[in-house]
Amino acid sequence: MDFLRGKGLKPRINVLLLSWGWRWLGVRRRYLKVEWSVGMENHPDVNIRFPLVYGVAGECFRTKRPVYVDLVKASDKFRLPLHLNHRTEHLTAIFSYPIYEPKKKGHQSGRLLGVLNLDSEARHAYTAFRTGRMFSVIDERMKKLAVIAGLFYR
Questions:
Q1: In the sheet where 11-22 sits, what is the strand order?
Q2: 101 near 150, Cβ under 8 Å?
Q3: For range 21-29, the mean pLDDT
Q4: pTM to 2 decimals?
Q5: Quick check: 27 pLDDT over 70?
Q6: Cα gap 136→62, rounded to integer Å
Q7: What is the C-alpha separation between 65 and 129, in angstroms, rounded?
Q8: Dihedral over Cα of 48, 50, 52, 53: its sign
Q9: Closest CA to 19 of 40, 35, 43
């Protein structure tokens, strides 16, 4: 995080976990909710909860693959619902990584627990995140953090 801050990227990292909710007709609906964060203090999305079908984190959870999105150029499929969109409009780049339930000897079970997000509100964040060596370092660290997060949220 300090390395990214030194580049002026204003990084934030958060863990979104699956939660269940009830709708007024009794139909259960799955949500992603921020459960832990660093760098999100005094931001409107620190305690956000949104349906699984929306956002970059939702796409990562549904596809079970890392997702890297430049929100400035992104399509509408990565936007949150209108009533929540104003809470995240300051973000310019999001990297999402799936968090799997761990098994013995460092292997993963395949059961998805949630999503680890690295995001930024700096204008040049996506370009900086995707540049050669920095991308490989970020990708490797995100992978390790996702495994550690899986241990905590099992």
A1: 49-51, 28-38, 11-22, 108-120, 93-102, 67-70
A2: yes
A3: 68
A4: 0.86
A5: no
A6: 23
A7: 18
A8: negative
A9: 35
In the chain, where the domains are located: 2-152
Separation CA 79–CA 77 (nearest Å):
6
Distance between CA atoms of 154 and 87, rounded to whole angstroms?
A: 29
Half-sphere exposure (CA, 13 Å, Cβ side) for 49?
Answer: 11
Q: What is the pLDDT of residues 72-119, one digit of tens each?
A: 888 777 888 888 888 888 889 999 999 998 876 656 667 899 999 999
Tokens 């990214």 label which residue? 4
Question: In this model, does residue 26 exceed pLDDT 70?
Answer: no
- State how far the alpha carbon of 61 is from the alpha carbons of 15, 78, 115, in Å: 12, 13, 6
What distance in Å separates the CA atoms of residue 82 and residue 47, rounded to the nearest whole number?
17
Structural fold of domain 2-152: Beta-Lactamase (3.30.450)
